[in-house]
Amino acid sequence: YRAKFAPFKNENGDYGGLIVVLQDITEQQKLENMRKEFVANVSHELKTPITTIKSYTETLLEGAIDDTQYSMQFLKVINNECDRMARIVRDLLQLSNLDFKQTKWNMTKISVKELIEETLKRTEIFAKEKRQSINVQIEENITEIFADKDGILQVILNIVSNAIKYTPEKGKIDISVKMENDNVVITVKDNGIGIPEKDLDRIFERFYRVDKARSRALGGTGLGLSIAKQIVEAHNGDIKIRSKYNVGTEVDIILPVVGV
Ligand code: ADP
């Protein structure tokens, strides 16, 4: 706590007492620490690909370029690292727009069922590659919701992609949609690697990952869940995660029907 003192006078001009203001600075300090940690993370995330690009480029310049096989290999690495940086910067820009409330939402009536179908169209190929099965169960009584179609599609895509990424071959993914009061609840359940209890609290933080190397190898930026949470919250909804290490993960995307 930070304390501020101010004496005050009564109508006779005598000191009548003391005003003490106690300010909780722990919250302020926590925010400041989070800001510092964020800058450190961004720098580190960008530094890694830059170091790789630099060393491969130098090797090419030092003569490896004369060997077609090597140079093809090196250029592929450089190209991949550029893609990674582009993904990080794209996600950071989106987060920044969300932070400053500059995201333009195009609110319309949308069918969650159609969004699930669109998600399947785009992700099924990755599930097939891993011989995973995706089951979908949509209750009859699902109403349309008033929301930004692209934003919500991005959220569902992110959660389903995570389920596919973090579930081994032949795994099972269940997507269900049901009504709960005035909310549509989309649940994505997998029987994948799960998240250890100690990491669950922090999983929506920017750049927080259970296993950095694994996430990187899968092309992740560690920003997907925090973007998803921010989009859902901008819709007055919520996103919840339950998980058991080595058993599986379950994510609820809760969206109010509002205005329809
Ligand atoms: P990433 O780009 O690393 O996938 P996300 O923000 O989407 O970033 O997710 C953050 C981390 O949460 C992941 O790195 C992973 O450790 C964990 N995670 C997310 N979804 C799942 C899941 N379905 N199963 C297991 N771990 C998950």
TrEMBL record:
It is found in: Membrane. Residues 41-259 form the Histidine kinase domain. It comes from the Bacteria. Coiled coil: none annotated. This is histidine kinase. It comes from Caloranaerobacter azorensis DSM 13643.
